[in-house]
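We modelled the chain as a single entity of 166 amino acids. Its sequence is:
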Amino acid sequence: MGVSGSGKTTVATRLADALGRPFAEADDMHPPANVAKMAAGTPLTDDDRGPWLATVRDWLTEQSALGRSAVVTCSALRRVYRDVLREAAGGVTFVHLDGDPELLAVRMKARKGHFMPPSLLRSQLDTLEPLEADEDGVRVPIDGDPDELVAEALRRLGERARGHAE
């Protein structure tokens, strides 16, 4: 989870490979109307996000029904959005990729072919509600290269798992 430009797709694909789990990109699950709205520079509303979040949740539930843990990218900026995802069968653990707004802006301006324009970064940052203490997940700063971020995510997830087992 995290705002646009945080490296969700890059880190998640590598994390899925490292864990041997299926991967999905939640951006690919947006209905065309949502993509058009964002491409035009208009932030999505909660009403826009509702069906999309349900689709992501349902994909996670399908993976669980197949006996598989999975990795999916999703901005999941607000707790109420994460609450929808947590309805998935099998449980959900979040990895919040978090970083400096200036670094995020540089990354967004450098990428090519993505429908999310840099102009929407401010609205995403304003919407972002970091993970709360009672939410299952970890925060990973984005100031390293992708391999370092994956290693850090795995380390923090391992610590979290050990903490739950004690």
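As a brief sanity check on the tokenised model: The beta strands are 23-25, 71-73, 94-98, 137-141. Residues 7 and 79 are 20 Å apart (CA to CA).
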